[in-house]
Amino acid sequence: MKKVKFFLKTAHAIFKSVSFDVAIGIIATHALVLFFGYYPEEITTYLFGILMALLPDIDTLYMFRRDKFYADHRSWPHYPLLMFLIVVSAVSLWSYFYFGYISYFHLLLASSCLFWHYLHDSWDNAENEEGIQWGAPFFSYNRYVISIRPLEEKNKSWFVLTRAFMRRVTDKTIRRVKENRETAIEFWEKHYMKETLEAYQGVIILVIAILFVWIV
Ligand SMILES: [Zn+2]
Fold first, then answer.
1. What is the pLDDT of residues 136-151, one digit of tens each?
2. Residues 54, 144, 27: CA angle, nearest 5 degrees
3. What SS3 class is residue 166?
4. DSSP character for 1?
5. Most buried residue, 67, 172, 195, 204, by most Cβ within 10 Å?
6. pLDDT for the residue numbered 146
7. How far is the CA of 142 from the CAs of 71, 121, 127, 157, 168, in angstroms?
8. From ligand 1's centre to the CA of 145, what distance in Å?
């Protein structure tokens, strides 16, 4: 009984933690469906968008293979450049054989869902402020966060226009994240196994996404 209760509690926390990305997948799909006039509005199209918005988090599956399940997951599925290359090629090939043409609709949908996922993970208070390795594995393995807070390291950002928003994650932060490595359960307990408004942010956006599809 205790096990069932724990499983339900964890499943509920996972639902809260993925609902933001699911919502982004739904909103992006519906916006592009409206824009392209792509009918019929098939459920599979929405599932495709949701899958793309969640895709980078397949690296969480690695942590379930370890004896201790760590919460941080920033391996290659979180390298945006690499993933764009893989996904654009895969979607082009798949759509060419499935529809008989390269579907720009699906390419644009996959790219925008991925892009939003990486933006969300780069936001400075996302998870552990550890950011994303935007240039990996081609240019650099530096981590970057996007922030609207005053920046200490702004001169080290990529280029002039992004200096106000993009900041390289300092070695100090990376050390702190590594030293206080959280397990998945600790992470969910801290952020999602509580009934606060903050824990339900993603769920609220998911409700808005469903209303958006329903009404607009
Ligand atoms: Zn992610």
1. 899 999 988 887 665 5
2. 30
3. strand
4. -
5. 204
6. 83
7. 20, 15, 17, 10, 7
8. 13
Whole-number pLDDT of residue 101: 95
* Distance separating the N- and C-terminal Cα atoms of the chain: 44
Cα of 59 to ligand 1 centre, how many Å?
8
In this structure, what is the dihedral angle of CA atoms 49, 66, 9, 125, given to the nearest 10 degrees? Answer: -60
Please name the helix (run of DSSP H) or strand (run of DSSP E) that holds residue 179, with its range, or none.
helix 171-179
CA 214 to centroid of ligand 1, rounded, Å = 27
Domain locations in the chain as residue ranges: 2-215
Query: How far is ligand 1, taken at its centre, from the CA of residue 1, in Å?
Result: 32
Residue 83 CA to ligand 1 center (angstroms) comes to 12
Question: Which pLDDT belongs to residue 40?
Answer: 62
pTM: 0.85
Give the distance (Å) from ligand 1 centre to CA of residue 21: 9
If you measure from the C-alpha of residue 192 to the centroid of ligand 1, how many angstroms do you get, rounded to a whole number?
16
Q: Give me ligand 1 centre to Cα 100, in Å.
A: 32
- Centre of ligand 1 from the C-alpha of residue 74, in Å: 8
Ligand 1: distance of its center to the CA of 171 in Å? Answer: 21
Mean predicted confidence (pLDDT) in 100-115? 96
pLDDT score at 83 = 96
| Phi, psi of 64, deg, nearest 5 | -80, -5
